[in-house]
Amino acid sequence: MRHALAAREKGSGGVARVRRAWRWWVVLAAVAVLMALPSLFARLPADAAAVAPTELATRIGGSAALPYSGSVETSGALLLPDIPGAEEAADLLGSTSRLRAWVAGPTSWRVDVLTRTGEQDTYRDSAGITEWDSERRRVTRRSDDAILRLPRAADLLPPELARRLLGAAAPDELHRLPATRVAGRAVPGLRVVPRLEASTVDHIDIWADPDTGVALQVTVVAKSTQRTALSSQFLDVSLAPVSADAVTYSPGPHIERRRGQDDFVQSALRFSTIALPPDLGGLERRPESAGSMATYGDGFGVVAVLALPAGLVERALPSTIATSARPWGGTARVVQTPLVNAMGITVGPASYVIAGPVTVAELDRLAAVLAGASG
């Protein structure tokens, strides 16, 4: 990257020494054409093979072991509060990020988050996760065996995000979309329209390579705003095999090495021993639950519940999130975003955080159940 920047600066210096005015117009015209290329390509007719929505969803679901690489742009409108230990996830879900990915397989990949001043690279191998922070020249090694954890950049890559979202969709929620062009490829699409009234998701649009099922673009539209709340798309992509060198971390000189610490969710799981019920308000507990954290329900109404000793929720959440009286008779702190809502309550010796892509009214319903069960 440094060589490319140096070459660019050298080229700019050469142009600056050009004396004839007409050459400036040539340069400006060339820049204008280059800047317009993405939109010009987007307007080209998309002639992709027609694929039934259920068949395309099956191909996307079966693409987990396939290789790909490319540049990705993600954008999120989930303005989450500053919670210690969850800063990285909040940044990913609440702003625009540029990523570069090399994926050789489910346990062999590399994803770089590019910033203005450096990059943060994550490598996955059979032994776990290696994270490289170029600004701090720090490498962190951690295991990757957590059942429940906060989202990371790799989770927002279009193929991974599409598989996770389609895993919650029922066949009758799938609809065909016209083909479009993504990263220069004409690809078919499908739309997921959740039928659950309490879900905050209005619809999800996914476009994928028809042959491999590798998803190239995902857009999630919130019901409350009718605007995109989360999107991820390739700017350029290759579906060719990825070399081992591309996904292998090679340590450099003068770096700081450290063991990774638990994130917010894992720390809470390690600290709390409060048990959660096998069902909640008619929603069954899901198998990926672990100890004092559980997920309930299915489809696009899944909620996560975290149980902690009383008072910890209040201390963890920013003071700017005020306590409000709830219709079920108690009080709670509520965090609202277009796509995910969360509620923190304290009942007796326990505090609970309830969160998911559901309405605040649904959170109130479940909070009332927890309050009654704990009273």
Q: What is the CA-CA span between the terminal residues?
A: 60 Å
CATH architecture descriptor text of the largest domain:
Clam
Q: Determine the oligomeric state from the structure.
A: single chain
**What's the gyration radius in Å?**
23 Å
Strand content: 25-35%
Count every helix, treating DSSP H or I runs of 4 or more residues as helices.
Answer: 8
CATH class of the largest domain: Mainly Beta
CATH topology-level fold name of the largest domain: outer membrane lipoprotein receptor (LolB), chain A
Count of DSSP strands: 20
Would you write up a description of this structure?
This protein is α+β, with helices and mostly antiparallel strands. The protein folds into three domains: 2-43; 53-259, outer membrane lipoprotein receptor (LolB), chain A, CATH 2.50.20.10; 272-374, Phosphorylase Kinase, domain 1 (2-Layer Sandwich), CATH 3.30.200. It is built from eight helices and 20 strands. It has helices spanning 2-16, 21-43, 53-61, 87-94, 158-166, 264-271, 312-316, 360-374, and strands at 68-76, 96-105, 108-114, 119-125, 128-133, 138-142, 174-182, 185-192, 201-208, 215-222, 228-238, 256-259, 279-280, 283-284, 293-296, 303-309, 323-325, 331-336, 341-347, 350-356. A hairpin with a 5-residue loop joins strand 17 and strand 18 (331-336). The chain starts with a helix and ends with a helix.
